[in-house]
UniProtKB/TrEMBL annotation:
It comes from the Bacteria. Belongs to the enoyl-CoA hydratase/isomerase family. SUPFAM superfamilies: ClpP/crotonase (SSF52096). CDD domains: crotonase-like (cd06558). This is Enoyl-CoA hydratase/isomerase family protein. InterPro entries: ClpP/crotonase-like_dom_sf (IPR029045), Enoyl-CoA_hydra/iso (IPR001753), Enoyl-CoA_hydra_C (IPR014748), Enoyl-CoA_Hydratase/Isomerase (IPR051683).
Amino acid sequence: MSVTLTITKQKVATLTIERSEVHNAFDAHTIAQLIQQIEYANTLDIRALVLKGEGKHFSAGADLNWMKSMVSNTFEDNVADSMELARLMQVLFETKVPTLCLVQGAAFGGALGLIACCDIAVADEKAKFCLSEVKLGLIPAVISPYVINAIGERQARRYFQTAEVFFADKALALGLVHEVSDSPEDTLDTLLHAILQNGPEATKQAKQLICEVANKPIDNDLRQLTAERIAQIRVSDEGQEGLQAFFDKRKPSWQ
């Protein structure tokens, strides 16, 4: 197994890429395992999903030996293979619970897609990043929708074409990561603690709301949608429990 899944008593699932001998680069087998484990985690009663890389580095991106081996494959085979990576990005991006990423060491190429697909990214202050594809005569195609969503088109125009290495402070400024820390595990624990204080269903619904509202025109349809969303959750069991707990000056049941 090159990917492991663990779940705590607090219902936090952690996915760890365990290919440290190749700096956690991913090949077809690793991609398949990540998809399988994320989809399995999504069937469980979990509160959050954390993505990590074993050892000194988060991930070197796509395994170059694997990519080189595909040169003899047909165009159709290459498309099918790339669609599996696209599926990985999709299942991670669409995971219903909060997703968090812990980045240490190097995060190159496709690894930036994984980071961009997560809701929250925490980087070690010594982490370094690179959209390195053009150095190899390639392009960051499959990850591009998610990376552009994270850092914006203007910044993508620079880093997609220069393949510059940049560090955690720049990743923070670009919006690729949310926190830079000299103790990233502690920062991750603080964020998870904050998430676990909140209504489980409300947290999922808040995440879904972003997908429904972002980049939409503020018109009657959007106003109707948002009014319906708050009306639905206001009368839900969780919404009523949260409000009653506030008035009773007690912790809600999910804590």
